[in-house]
Task: inverse folding
């Protein structure tokens, strides 16, 4: 193991375990001793309606109602497009849309007053069905080869639909932001967030101040997983507008039900796949991908892009055609969640491959293996897999962990009795960093190191530690290059008033992209190091030379410089009396390049893997005929506990990436992508296989298992 | 003394507010014990767990009236102990703390396990932690840290 891989005590370990870390809800007063008012949102009760009037109860002194009329700047939140308002315009587009905010000193009084507000609506017909929704925010189409010819010449053509549901990020700390008007007229906004500069741009626009009128600090953040990528920009604008109006600090922290019901989650999807097979080989894939975007477009463009680029999976398929739509429905806007569109399409493609193999009478692992991409092959967007693809070796690694190949054939044989077993396999990638030319054209990351006269070095960057450990790994890289003790390098939570924009904390990019900038900056600093003086160095992102330029208008070129890879196996025992699925083992091999801290990376793999298993099985969330999400508590939306998957093993496979620090690639998202198809293939196998019980959707709950099983009995 | 009398992190205190107030809110707002986190406020996630007479309890589901005469420990009190130091060391060795929000509750859950069963099996640790949701780690690191603390903390529990 390289020196850089050895695990060290995390910088934030002590304050967090001792309960001293200050999360946004933990401030008793502001740092300068001012009282903090509570802000609570007035949410729309209808999925689609015109808001005719808001009748306030008599507000006691010190209590204020805030809405769109109070916005000094622009009532559009900077995300990708301009359609998301800070507070609703004339209509509301989903249940939960913020109409206004009630602000005051006593939380209980604020909640009481909020409940007394009467909103009159003119109800309109909502669009709720992903199949029939005809308005799409984004439409994409791309491909290569000659799909029509391949279908015409095929021995057999397979068509199937795949459905995936919502998944909520369920970070343990709910969303929360706070705004403090400062004496110099600036607005200081801080809270639980991933992307300080996204919030900066959004708040400056809503307040109409220009970039110098605001600054944003990331507080200690209790998990994100994508859920705090765009949403803090929205609440950040809301508290800033409220604080501007009342001239006092305002904090809004969501309660859990509000958070589960009204914050972004993974897009539900409907994928229709049509696949041509000739001489036992897949010759064409035509994928029609639909994501349910919800009421506003937020991040759907980029989520959909990543999803459709992954549509043909890890397979070398000569003819590919993909269409992608992010459809508008009057439901909660979906957003970023670890995997970012790819878990949906990988689920579809992996299941498709498994089902075809079963129909052909071939073991699906062997069938998939014959199609794996390899170095030098063309990607779905006519880019190139520039680096070695270690998937065959990683399949071998999980085979060694759980005797996968043998069991995969064994469990296919007819089983009897109450308990039936299955084992499933999947292989996936995660494109490292932003999709397309985003790093080069949009983000243009800058990172700095400041050395003080006493020889300590501060990392200046905008990537927030949300649990993934950048407060530890960034200083570790810098200390390593400077050859100084780790204790002398530190990285505080970013404040946009004092750090450059090194980009958002998303896309598994922080360590790979910004970590590399810091490594180069440290080398620069080492070369000019002078004792006893303050020195500063800066590095800017440069796109690697080998990249084939990406054109978004036609989805051509290298969508990613490189890829992280995963293979996984999930072994289950299904109780056919109760529908309960006992996960006997879950095994993953992960290639994220060099793990810059072994424990941290394994922690990412295990955490993401369990989230993926939850996504496939127990994490069920849906909306009713009115567009309301009913699973808005931990009683109804279940996430895995310590007892659900006791036997989960993650092993690291290292394929170094020359342009990442010490060979590191993107890591955080990858482990979530692999488990759903492996889990579903395993359950399907236990139920007798695709010929009798073809499974094509997640989540697949206990109830789904028992219903599916009884189809045969009836 | 009138009011609700209880022991909080080793000190006798008297709470003079309503008996219907939530223990979670009182600990956070009146006593400013911010290690006690609010994750769901309905007894499902364990982020607000405290020890009441040594028993792990979600403070969001306890009314102040029920606290009278009892002893409450939060991480602010527990962190002064040798047991905490051992747990912290073992958690650190496995980088078991990610976002940190569940951790104060987890630490008290670990104490609740080890104080009645100093040498638990892995299954017993998993069961003992199962009321505390962690979304970051997948639990392996936390479970192993507790097992390591049990192994090396002989005599502490």
Result:
């Amino acid at each position: 193991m390289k020196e850089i891989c050895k695990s060290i005590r995390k910088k934030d370990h002590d304050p967090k375990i001792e309960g001293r870390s200050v999360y946004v809800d933990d401030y008793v007063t502001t740092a300068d001793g001012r009282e903090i008012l509570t802000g609570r949102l007035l949410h729309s009760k209808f999925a689609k309606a015109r808001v005719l009037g808001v009748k306030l109860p008599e507000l006691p002194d010190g209590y204020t109602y805030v809405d769109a009329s109070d916005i000094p700047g622009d009532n559009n939140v900077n995300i990708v497009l301009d359609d998301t308002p800070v507070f609703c315009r004339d209509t509301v587009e989903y249940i939960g849309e913020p109409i206004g905010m009630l602000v005051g000193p006593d939380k209980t009084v604020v909640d009481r007053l909020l409940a007394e507000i009467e909103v009159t609506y003119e109800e309109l017909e909502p669009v709720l069905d992903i199949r029939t929704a005809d308005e799409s925010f984004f439409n994409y189409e791309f491909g290569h080869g000659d799909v029509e010819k391949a279908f015409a010449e095929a021995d057999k053509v397979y068509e199937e639909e795949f459905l995936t549901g919502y998944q909520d990020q369920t970070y343990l700390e709910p969303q929360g932001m706070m705004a403090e008007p400062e004496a110099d007229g600036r607005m200081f906004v801080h809270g639980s967030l991933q992307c300080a500069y996204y919030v900066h741009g959004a708040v400056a626009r809503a307040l109409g101040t220009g970039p110098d009128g605001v600054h944003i600090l990331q507080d200690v953040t209790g998990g994100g997983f994508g859920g705090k990528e765009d949403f803090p920009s929205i609440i950040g604008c809301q508290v800033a507008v409220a604080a501007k109006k009342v001239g006092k600090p305002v904090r809004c922290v969501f309660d859990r039900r509000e958070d589960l019901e009204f914050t972004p989650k993974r897009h539900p999807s409907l994928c229709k796949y049509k696949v041509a097979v000739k001489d036992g080989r897949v010759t064409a894939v035509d994928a029609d991908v639909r994501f349910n975007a919800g009421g506003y477009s937020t991040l759907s463009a980029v989520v959909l892009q990543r999803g459709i680029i992954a549509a043909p999976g890890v397979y070398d398929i000569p003819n590919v055609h993909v269409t992608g739509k992010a459809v508008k429905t009057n439901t909660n806007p979906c957003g970023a969640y670890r995997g970012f569109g790819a878990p949906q399409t990988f689920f579809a493609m992996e299941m498709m491959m498994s089902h075809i193999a079963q129909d052909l009478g071939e073991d699906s692992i062997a069938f998939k293996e014959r199609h794996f991409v390899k170095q030098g092959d063309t990607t779905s967007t006519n880019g190139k897999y520039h680096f070695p693809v270690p998937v065959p070796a990683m399949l071998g690694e999980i085979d060694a962990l759980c005797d996968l190949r043998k069991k995969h054939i064994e469990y296919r044989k007819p089983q009897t009795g109450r308990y039936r077993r299955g084992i499933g396999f999947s292989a996936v990638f995660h494109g490292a960093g932003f999709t397309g030319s985003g790093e080069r054209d949009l983000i243009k990351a800058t990172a700095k190191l400041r050395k003080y006269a006493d020889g300590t070095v501060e990392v200046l960057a905008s990537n927030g530690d949300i649990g993934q450990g950048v407060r530890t790994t960034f200083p570790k890289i810098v200390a390593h290059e400077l050859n100084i003790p780790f204790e002398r390098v530190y990285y505080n939570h970013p404040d946009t008033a004092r750090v450059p924009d090194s980009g958002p904390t998303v896309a598994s990019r922080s360590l790979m992209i910004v970590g590399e900038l810091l490594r180069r900056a440290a080398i620069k600093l080492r070369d000019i190091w002078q004792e006893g003086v303050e020195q500063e160095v800066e590095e800017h992102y440069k796109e690697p030379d080998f990249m084939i330029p990406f054109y978004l208008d036609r989805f051509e070129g290298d969508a990613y410089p490189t890829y992280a890879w995963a293979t996984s196996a999930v072994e289950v025992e299904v109780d056919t009396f109760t529908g309960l699925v006992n996960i006997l083992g879950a095994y993953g091999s992960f290639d994220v390049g060099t793990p810059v801290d072994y424990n941290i990376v394994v922690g990412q793999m295990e955490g993401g893997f369990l989230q993926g298993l939850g996504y496939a099985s127990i994490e069920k969330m849906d909306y009713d005929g009115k567009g309301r999400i009913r699973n808005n508590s931990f009683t109804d939306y279940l996430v895995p506990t310590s007892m659900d998957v006791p036997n989960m093993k993650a092993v690291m496979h290292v394929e170094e990436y020359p342009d990442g620090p010490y060979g590191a690639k993107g890591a955080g998202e990858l482990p979530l992508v692999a488990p759903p198809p492996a889990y579903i293939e395993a359950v399907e196998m236990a139920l007798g296989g695709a010929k009798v019980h073809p499974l094509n959707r997640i989540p697949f709950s206990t109830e789904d298992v028992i219903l599916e099983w009884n189809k045969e009995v009836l | 003394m009138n009011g609700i009398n209880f022991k909080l992190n080793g000190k006798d205190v008297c709470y003079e507010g309503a008996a219907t107030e939530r223990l979670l809110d009182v600990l956070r707002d009146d006593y400013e014990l911010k290690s006690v986190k609010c994750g769901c406020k309905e007894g499902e996630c364990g982020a607000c767990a405290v020890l009441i007479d040594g028993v792990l309890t979600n403070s969001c589901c306890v009314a102040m009236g029920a606290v009278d005469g009892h002893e409450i420990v939060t991480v602010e009190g527990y962190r002064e102990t040798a047991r905490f130091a051992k747990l912290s060391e073992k958690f650190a060795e496995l980088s078991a703390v990610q976002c940190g929000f569940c951790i104060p509750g987890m630490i008290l859950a670990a104490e609740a396990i080890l104080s009645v069963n100093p040498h638990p099996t892995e299954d017993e640790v998993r069961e003992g932690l199962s009321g505390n949701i962690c979304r970051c780690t997948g639990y392996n690191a936390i479970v192993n840290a507790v097992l390591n603390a049990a192994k090396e903390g002989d005599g502490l529990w």
Summary: The mean pLDDT of chain B is 97. Chain B has two domains: 4-77, 79-152.
